[in-house]
Amino acid sequence: MSKIFRLDASIRQEGSVTRALADTIERTVAEELADADVVRRDLGVTPLDGSVWPAAVSAGPVPEGERTSEQVAAAGIAAELADQLEGADALIFAVPLYNFGVSQHFKTWLDVVTTDPRFAPGTQPLAGRPAFLVTARGGGYGAGTPREGWDHATGWMRRMLEDVWGLDLDVIEAELTLADVNPAMADLRDLAKRQLEEAHDAARETARSVTLRLRATV
Ligand SMILES: Cc1cc2nc3c(=O)[nH]c(=O)nc-3n(C[C@H](O)[C@H](O)[C@H](O)COP(=O)(O)O)c2cc1C
């Protein structure tokens, strides 16, 4: 059986582009691998409390028997998150762009994971595992556009997932997702629609090629 871990960070349920693209990946994987088991963590619905991370950091150097109850609880949450990741054969991260930066829910989650000793700097327990980073941006950030270089989230997420954790990462991106609701972007609606279709095609194709590899290895 192949185990898939899926994380969602969109703060909306209805109309979420990252959730829809992750659904396409999940559906394709399920079609290709009859026995796929998907474990989900929905940070948009159940975010981690911001106090968990500093408590987990401060627990690190303290021997287990000497930790405060807050430190014990925080280290326990970090271990649970790390268990979920370690148990996965493939991973899906669906994380939108917010305020030109990374989702705070995703940042908190990743910060907490990193406090678990298995994810300490220099360790790569997930090295080589296939993973998808799905992201969506309301505006456009392409070369030559006024907002080129303003997406400060995707580069950081790639750095952490690909370089620090060593995942074998595919990135699926959708832009201009606010074109339908922002009158100033009315001229971009056709382009946005086309780009979204292309993103779903890319999600399907990439998911198919990843499942081929999973079939060979799991
Ligand atoms: C609070 C908030 C802040 C946002 N900030 C940005 C932003 O800085 N740049 C941008 O292009 N889009 C921004 N957006 C738009 C989202 O990136 C876009 O709607 C995306 O599709 C959200 O992902 P979702 O469709 O999965 O919910 C923001 C949306 C919200 C709700």
TrEMBL record:
Residues 185-213 form a coiled coil. FMN binds at residue 10. Its cofactor is FMN. Keywords: Coiled coil, Flavoprotein, FMN, NAD, Oxidoreductase. Transmembrane segments: none annotated. Its EC number is 1.6.5.-, 1.7.1.17. It holds the Pfam family Flavodoxin_2. The keyword Flavoprotein applies. Residues 3-178 form the Flavodoxin-like fold domain. One of its GO terms (molecular function) is FMN binding. It catalyses: N,N-dimethyl-1,4-phenylenediamine + anthranilate + 2 NAD(+) = 2-(4-dimethylaminophenyl)diazenylbenzoate + 2 NADH + 2 H(+); 2 a quinone + NADH + H(+) = 2 a 1,4-benzosemiquinone + NAD(+). It is an enzyme of class 1 (oxidoreductase). Binds 1 FMN per subunit. SUPFAM superfamilies: Flavoproteins. Also exhibits azoreductase activity. Catalyzes the reductive cleavage of the azo bond in aromatic azo compounds to the corresponding amines. Quinone reductase that provides resistance to thiol-specific stress caused by electrophilic quinones. Belongs to the azoreductase type 1 family. Homodimer. This is FMN dependent NADH:quinone oxidoreductase. It comes from Antricoccus suffuscus.
